[in-house]
TrEMBL record:
The keyword Membrane does not apply. One of its GO terms (biological process) is cell division. Pfam families: ZapA (PF05164). This is Cell division protein ZapA. The keyword Cell division applies. Keywords: Cell cycle, Cell division, Coiled coil.
Amino acid sequence: MTKQKKRFKAVIDNQTYTIIGQESTEHMTMVTKLVNDQLNELKQLSPQMDSEQAAILLAVNAISDQLKKQEQLLAALKKNEELRKKAIKVTELENRIQRIEAIEVEAKEVLERTGRSEVEIHNHLEAQQILNEERKRNIQQKTSQG
């Protein structure tokens, strides 16, 4: 749903302007105040500058600031995307670690159940091998019973 356009009467550098837009009155009041403050500051810094020159300089400064902010935003978005990708990788690694730990726990349970609790598991590959051997024994037992 789009916002309804509003009319706002702004007094900038003693000139009245009607601004049509979707922003709130509070926003436009703040914009008007900042424009007047910056115009006054420019005129104080260079008293020989007329209103038109000050307005053009203010516009140049505003566009320059806008471009800098856009660059900062793009850099922040890029950094955010990089961090999101890293977070996904970290989550994937955490999930792998949990699966490996579960395999190791299950392998230790198999060793205890089969009376081989003295056997040490050095890595997840050994743990997986123990589970594979146990599953193979279970399948062989079922086929010999059936």
